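Here is one record:
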Amino acid sequence: MGCAQSRIDNEEAVARCKERRQWMKAAVTARNAFAAAHSAYAMSLRDTGAALSEFAHGEGVPPPPLPGAPAEATSQGGAAVDRRALGGVGGGRCNDAAAAAHRLAASSPASAS
């Protein structure tokens, strides 16, 4: 016989049963919210790690051009970007981001000194 079917609401045991039921419902709700937040946090850590890995993957210093090899010039007068030295020839997001970062670093006033 559960506390919901009891006709004596003034009894201490019934009051404790109802209070305990409310506490358990609150605990389950809090546990579910915590689990959802923990899962979202773990996914954001995974995404942040992937983004940092992708960023660091393209951060290599390109080797100097070989003697006699044609040098590419950018329209901004910066250093040439050899896409093969930045990790491949494809049009992937990592290669494009690394090339853009390299062009930005080459055209910034701090790199000219």
Q: What stands out?
A: The CA atoms of residues 46 and 88 lie 24 Å apart. The radius of gyration is 31 Å. The chain has three helices and no strands. Residues 76-113 form one domain.
